[in-house]
Amino acid sequence: MIKAVCIINNHGKPRLAKFYQSVESEALQQTVIRRIYQQVAQRDDTFCNYLEGIVPELGDNVKLIYRHYATLYFVFAVDSQESDLGILDLIQVFVESLDKCFENVCELDLIFHSDRVHYCLDEIVMGGMVLETNIGAILQSIKDQTKLHKDSLSKADANESSSAIRERIGTEQSTWQYNW
Amino acid sequence: MATGGVNLSKEFFELLKAIGESKSKQEEDRIIAKEVVRLKQKLETPQSGGMGSPAATNQLLTSKKRAKEFLVRLLYVEMLGHDGSFGYIKAVEMAASSSLFHKRTGYLVCSACLSPEHEFRFMLVNQMQRDLQSSNVLEICGGVLAATALITEDMVPAVSGEVMKLIAHDSDTVRKKVIIALHRFHQLAPETVTREDLVEKLRKVLCDRDPSVMGSSLNVIEALAAEDATVFKDLIPSLVSILKQIGEHRLPSDYDYHRVPAPWIQMKIVRILGIVGKADAAASSGMYEILMDCMTKADVGVNAGYAVVYECVKTIATIYPNPKLLDAAGEAISRFIRSRSHNLKYLGVTGLAMIVEGNPQYAAQHQLVVMDCLEDPDETLQRKTLDLLYRMTNPVNVEFITERILEFLRGSTDLFLKNVLTKRVCSVAERYAPNNAWYIRTITQLFEVSGDMVKQEVAQNLMTLIAEGTGDSEEADMLLRQNAVELYVGLLRDKPGTATKLPRILLETIAWVLGEYGYLSAVCTLDDVLKELCALASVKARLPNSTRKFMLSAVFKLVSQAGTCPPHAATVIDEYTRSKDTDLQQRCLEFQTLLTTAPQILSQVFPVDASAEDLAVDPNLSFLNGYVQQAIANGARPYEKPEDDDDDDDFMDESATNKGSGFKMTPYEKPQTPAAAMAAMRGMGGATPSMPGVSLPPGAGYGASTAPVQANTGAPGAVQLNTRNVANVWGKPQAAAAAPAPPPPAATSNAFASPGASSFGASSTGTNPYLAAAGMSSAPAPPPEPPKTAEQLEKERKAAALFGGMIPGAAPPPPAPASAMSAAAARAAASGATPVAAPAPPPPPAPAPAVEIDLLDMSAWDTPAPAPPPAAAGIDIFAAAPLPAAAPAAPPQVETVSDDEEEAPAGGLAAPAAPAPVPPPNPIDNLDPFAAEGLLGDVQDAPLASLSMGTQKFEFNGVPLGPLEITTAQFGQQWGSCPAVAPLEVQSSKVTTLNAFMDVCSNVGAYKVESIVSTNEGICAGMIGGTHVVLIHGKVSPGGMGAKLNVTVKSTDPSVTGPLAMYMQTLLR
């Protein structure tokens, strides 16, 4: 299970913090973020991208898997049920999705559109489980939502547009069949 | 109004900019506080103009933008750790908005900010229900997402029905989310969304036509399988087939990631295979081929591929082993470990640690790389490598590895890591120590670097080892002691003035060793040693009182050895006579009195090198006879024995005539004071084995040799207040033994109550009072708990001897049944760990048959006769090894009385009559309850006439075994207090899973207390006829054909364990 996802910049400012396992209080969340940053920031970029046993607040055997991009650290806190390398690639997928979503994502995008970052993450991870790993599918969902958002802003009657979208989605369903 | 939107954005921009530029946390706090004020103001101003105004559409837009931005800013404030609760209501309001755009923002803020028990969560239930029923796919998705993030246990029933229905929804986006939502519900409220429901849904969803739905279901399957894999075993063929199709690129190409087809789905499936195939040869065999295939295909040189390969390696390490796959895994690991990428190195080291325990040959080729990893500046890698080293430790490399770990410990400041490593050093040192001198050096170093993180029992163990030596030759032991003394003297001299900063545990050990064996030093005189100790013990030093007591005891011993008290020692002792600690004060006063009034007996009070000697104690207090006679002559009333008090002889007669139920099943009493007192005297460090001029009645020997046992068995009851099922075998006879020579309680009380001078003064008639009084107050008493380590060490040493060298496949099972008695004797001889109470092989004549049996006769398990259980019970009444675990465990007790207990007698309580207020330390309590496993080696492997595995309950003398419903904690308590043990090891092809084992136990009639899936262990409890408690512990591990079962049957009645163990063996085989 993924326990938490954080994006922290080089100076330790959180840009996104999502906890899938309720961490008791706000203060504790801040401790977790700070502790993650302290540990991650000291590490050389050539080091491996794993850190163990430093956030007891999230439970035993929680491992941090992180990636460092220019000014940001993307940190996933996971338990033993997740694959070490798999999560590393998942972070890459997340970043690529953001990049497509914002067209050359930069830190400012994440600040000004933190809600969209959340929606993007929601398409990848849900309730601590990996929901989708296919970039195409992730982007499609986000696109649908954005479209709907725009529609709902421009039209007073949101329902009408959403039903139109639903129809569109309905026709796009995968026609690919399996035989297992 | 038209510019409102722009202004707001500007405000937001300014805020972010200010925060970005803030230099300190305080500044940031100020900025946020301002922002909070601003947001609050906004909340209070009306949201939009009145309806029907000309600019209505425009305003709607602005206000929606404003509202959304308001929430985003709120989110930001919360993310920085400030309270935004004033705006939560706005978020709830937004979630109910008709616009999806706002709804999602509302839900988002709610799920990020509301604490789990926040009342607003309930306000959202209605809205979620509406969304779940919506016709709009995105609304449904929003609803499912919100439900997953926001639902609490109480709310599950309100939405679970709707969500269940959605599993059949047309849209794959909905289905894949629903399955995860259902899992969440199951975690929160397992009775609403039951495991069965979920499993059934999962089976359907696994065959979903959309790969991403299948992919998300795999997560849930893995999570459920990790709890209990049995229901998923039949999915193996489906999973294998899916994996195969993915490998053949049958999925659409957009599932490829860096040319690897659907790597995450592959990983998940491989992981699930690992879980369901664990310890299951049949299940595992179905996946060998696909794993090999998958591993080969994924190896295309990109990370995603390595990820799949790595998962395959992990699975191969967990499932039932296959040599070919292991080789392939070894190969993959070796490529990882040699890779330049740190990530792959990390995986390589982790993977190697996984397979190395069973297959050490894979580690051999990587020695140099592993060493490099250890030197690597990356701490994560270092830690993993230490972990690997720990797992590959063997008698050959133990010195090197321990040195490395100690080195790391010296440099590390991470408490958590230090703790783990400390335990590991103890463990490998005990298991693999090449010789005792090395062990002493290593543990001393460990004390230095880890200080009080080391468990007290390790120090205890060390002292026991030094005191008792190996038992091989007296010269070797003396050399060992001398080495230890030199080591410690050196330590003290290296750190003039700062020695008191050494960790407490080390100081105490040093004090004890120097006190006992200081005279052995070749580099310095006894007086020098004494000087060092006095310097340490001087009042100015900052030391805990317990450490001071160690120091002073050592000083006392050295002074009595020297025969004179040098001035520096006299000063220190004198200073402590004014100590605030009354115990310390008393010890010093007593010693001073001894020194001045009767220096000639000092050598008896503090005998040289006698800490490991047995101590004869006269529980009848016959030395008081004269006093008693005098008191009676003066008109005191003689002691009258209570009517209902069982006599020792009666007890034995009864058991002889009525074999079936000869053992008393009434609860233990609290341990009697004599036990504590005796233990205290032993703790003292020695005494003359037998008292001149004191005749010992038969009961005396009995009392003396059972004292530790009694302390052991009696204590759990006393500590846990759970005395119900603890037989009173030892408690009462003790009192009875005291009866024949009845000293009036008052008289005894007097003798003991007068501390110090008076008791010494009165003592010219015999030596006992000295011993008693001195022993009580000045035991050098390293605190308790040695038995565990002593025994464990012993066991582990044996294991090392057997399995040593790590040569694969060359681990013969311990040769079992010679006579268990000789095994016990061998154990006693093999190391110094057991000596004192392990009774001398020629058993003392007559007095206490029960004792002999307990300690020596463990022969029942040599040859389990295939006789029907009840008959065996009749025959083997005493044979079933009532105390095999307790007996070897007892001796270290000798030095283990903590200072506290000495207060009891000194405080004026009559030793035999008063129940001890402080229970003696309880070694059994510290014993690993499962440590008794295999103590007696294998059971004979001859096939027995198999009984059908029906639902026959076990019967003992016609009384069936009934379930005893207790909790695991209670089980643990009772485990320690059940004297009779019968371990058995069965190779079974019939009972291969934990559940099957538990079922067998249940069929036998026992209650399933708990099955621990993670370790494959289970515990059950039963009761026969309301008196005999029966406890069963079993561990299922893969081996040979089927599974290996290690079962331990314990009972309060030794005559039950044997037959039941045999009965179970037949059922299990």
TrEMBL record, chain A:
InterPro entries per record: AP_complex_ssu, AP_mu_sigma_su, APS3, Clathrin_sm-chain_CS, Longin-like_dom_sf
Domain spans labelled AP complex mu/sigma subunit: 1-145
Principal subcellular localization: membrane
Lipoprotein in keyword set: no
GO biological process terms, semicolon-separated: Golgi to vacuole transport; intracellular protein transport
Entries under CDD domains matching the protein: AP3_sigma
SUPFAM superfamilies: SNARE-like
Protein keywords: Cytoplasmic vesicle, Golgi apparatus, Membrane, Protein transport, Transport
GO CC field: AP-3 adaptor complex; cytoplasmic vesicle membrane; Golgi apparatus
Top-level taxonomic group: Eukaryota
Protein's cellular compartments: Cytoplasmic vesicle membrane; Golgi apparatus
Topology with respect to the bilayer: Peripheral membrane protein
PANTHER family: ADAPTOR COMPLEXES SMALL SUBUNIT FAMILY
Recorded family membership: Belongs to the adaptor complexes small subunit family.
Protein name, as recorded: AP complex subunit sigma
Native species: Seminavis robusta
From TrEMBL, chain B:
Gene3D superfamilies: Leucine-rich Repeat Variant
Compositionally skewed regions (Low complexity) per UniProt: 747-779
A GO cellular component entry from the record: endomembrane system
Region feature Disordered, mapped onto this chain: 634-669, 734-793, 889-923
Stated name of the protein: AP-4 complex subunit epsilon
Family matches, as SUPFAM superfamilies: ARM repeat (SSF48371)
Subcellular localization(s) per the UniProt record: Endomembrane system
Record-level GO BP terms: intracellular protein transport; vesicle-mediated transport
